[in-house]
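User: What would this chain look like folded?
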Amino acid sequence: MFAAIPKEFAAQPDDGRFVVNFRTPLGSSIEASSRALDRIEAELAAIPEVVGYFSAIGLGSVGQVNRGIVFVTLAPRAQRARSQAEVIEELRARLADLPGVLGFASPPSVVAGQRGEPLQFALVGPDLAGVAEQAERLRARLLAEPGLERVDLDLQLELPQLELRLDRARAAELGVAAADLAFAVNLLAGGVDHCQVQRRPGGRRTLRDPRQGARREVSPPRPSSASSCCAGATASWCASMPSPSRRRSWDRR
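Assistant: Here's the prediction, encoded as structure tokens.
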């Protein structure tokens, strides 16, 4: 009897919430990713059990604009005929038909910081190129399995890159330091965080210039937004604070 009963590592939850991880091709602009997210949101709105969601592009410390996530909320179990797993299954079929974007719907992970797909593999090794090669081989074998659906690979090394070589002799003739050149390239390519804000007890804040290591104390009242710390004497320090490239929430109710 025990051998005939279906088993699984963890019970499938039905708490009315799940996530959709998606990505567009490497090198996609924020506008292209935003259009792809619009299509995903339209598919979610077409499912009657979905009552709300919060979506974002560029979350996390890396902030890649070709990656995003949607946190989806379902109606309470008593108010819907289908289970959470059935809703996710329908959404997966809808996402598979969307061009130019890979979307993966799954329950929230039982491990914080991880994705919620029930079958995952982790490859580790001392050589990044070797790990990438083996990961592609594993992905090809998994795609050949008839019982598996879409297969995602987190490791992506195809992002276009530029390798800059410094003419140190020429820079020395012009009196330009290598650190200044590196800062100028970073500023041109993606901007820099020009100030960091640390809140302290009593409402005081410490503003720190990451390049110069200088600090400055700011007393209450605290500004209402991160950008307002640029007022007054701190204007020469502070640029806009890092934030997701796009955030949106929707509630059917």
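The CA atoms of residues 204 and 210 lie 19 Å apart. If you want, I can go into more detail on any region.
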